Amino acid sequence: xxxxxxxxxxxxxxxxxxxxxxxxxxxxxxxxxxxxxxxxxxxxxxxxxxxxxxxxxxxxxxxxxxxxxxxxxxxxxxxxxxxxxxxxxxxxxxxxxxxxxxxxxxxxxxxxxxxxx
Amino acid sequence: xxxxxxxxxxxxxxxxxxxxxxxxxxxxxxxxxxxxxxxxxxxxxxxxxxxxxxxxxxxxxxxxxxxxxxxxxxxxxxxxxxxxxxxxxxxxxxxxxxxxxxxxxxxxxxxxxxxxxxxxxxxxxxxxxxxxxxxxxxxxxxxxxxxxxxxxxxxxxxxxxxxxxxxxxxxxxxxxxxxxxxxxxxxxxxxxxxxxxxxxxxxxxxxxxxxxxxxxxxxxxxxxxxxxxxxxxxxxxxxxxxxxxxxxxxxxxxxxxxxxxxxxxxxxxxxxxxxxxxxxxxxxxxxxxxxxxxxxxxxxxxxxxxxxxxxxxxxxxxxxxxxxxxxxxxxxxxxxxxxxxxxxxxxxxxxxxxxxxxxxxxxxxxxxxxxxxxxxxxxxxxxxxxxxxxxxxxxxxxxxxxxxxxxxxxxxxxxxxxxxxxxxxxxxxxxxxxxxxxxxxxxxxxxxxxxxxxxxxxxxxxxxxxxxxxxxxxxxxxxxxxxxxxxxxxxxxxxxxxxxxxxx
Lengths: 117, 504
Hints:
The complex is a heterodimer.
Chain A: E1 2-7, H1 11-23, E2 28-34, H2 37-47, E3 51-55, H3 63-73, E4 78-83, H4 88-97, E5 101-104, H5 108-116
Parallel strand pairs in A: 1-2, 1-3, 3-4, 4-5
Helix pairs in contact in A: 1-5, 2-3, 3-4
Chain B: H1 2-19, H2 25-88, H3 97-115, H4 119-148, H5 152-239, H6 256-312, H7 316-334, E1 340-342, H8 343-361, E2 365-371, E3 379-381, H9 385-396, E4 404-413, E5 416-423, H10 430-441, H11 452-465, E6 471-476, E7 480-488
Parallel strand pairs in B: 2-4
Antiparallel strand pairs in B: 1-3, 4-5, 5-7, 6-7
Helix pairs in contact in B: 2-3, 2-5, 3-4, 4-5, 6-7, 6-11, 7-8, 9-11
């Protein structure tokens, strides 16, 4: 069983991804979620999840910064970026941070689940 | 607008002066020259003729005097000697020297009579002629005496008579001389007087010519200098950028063409600049539209993402409302390509937008819309409110963790539509606010990032409403922001059709 932490500023999308993970038969369990990077980082330090699914554009702290800090705290963390932006620069930064997957919105719950595989 | 008004004013003035304008410089100079030539030539000719005439008269009198004088002086001796010679027998009576002399004297007397200058004088000559005839009769008697061989003594007696008669003739002639001299004297005084008079008139004439020339010079000076000065003024005004300046028709025809050309040039220049401004504005409008169009896709796929999530979650009703709101949003954004919409449509547009955003952000976003009924049918520029609301969400509410509230209000005030968009988001401190206000007036469009929504609204209000203060931003850090739009109510913008309220 892998633990997943969800960061997304839109409650609806967050809820959707969470529901999909919960309903699926895959061995993933959602242990927590946050609406922005800053909040997420403080929670991650306590929960220590295996997988981080995060949006890029968020208030207070964006997804890439969050990924960099989270990676520093727990190097084994697997990170999946879900973003509406397909700019090369963002993808390049994501690679630098060591992101495992980069999904483009709109993905839908099943899409993000496929990203986990 | 101002340009056309002032143009009309100037043409009116031009018409007024055109009716009382005089002619060309060339004509004025011609007239002046002719007048001056006449003014000098005519008195000169009159003078010359008059002097010629009077001097001629004078000369004739003098000649008369001279000839009468010489006649009278020679007459006394010559008559006596000639007749003495005849009486003494030195010359024969038949030689007719005595009659030749008498004829000669008579001839000269006749000449004098012809030239006599007064009735008195010619009477005197008549007397002289009678006297001469008496002498002649005496001579005849001498001839008779000689022929009859009378003693010389008789003839000597007659000679004495002749001598006294010729003395009389001398006297008469002297009288004639005196009379003629008197006439000459009178003539002389008259000449003297007329000379004075002439001099006076000459001076008068000279003064009036001088006055005429001076007046003419001043007139010419004015009619040349003033138009040229006006043209100069106009040129410098144009150089300074004041294209509304026009010059009246000048009073001289030589400057007509120049004035016309300058006026036309200014007009053309003004038109060109106006055209250029128009083009520039159209370009900016197009630019604004293009930039706005770039934003739409973002919102589109974000919303599609939302709809997808709703669908996956099985919230069918929300899928329907969100999809309807999205479709309404885009239909009103396009507005069949028109730039102006009714307030009702614009509100419907922003409401669709807010409904979609509310669906996405749920509990963190609340909104209130409060629009006065009486402005719903007024027309306004489209898509002015939605960017403000978007701004409130992304730069205000999403930057705080508290529940967000957006309040949109609209009412009419002093013939203006006043809209306020208020949020309780992060807000801005004084420095940020100042920077934002600065950004509005000079925004780098090639690098659109922060504050583009506000700039877009500000710029479009400026372009379409021609006002500078249509958008006012107020803010307080950690309290929220308030954006106010003040749009003049337009009597008749490009035709706006009142929409039936549709969509959800």
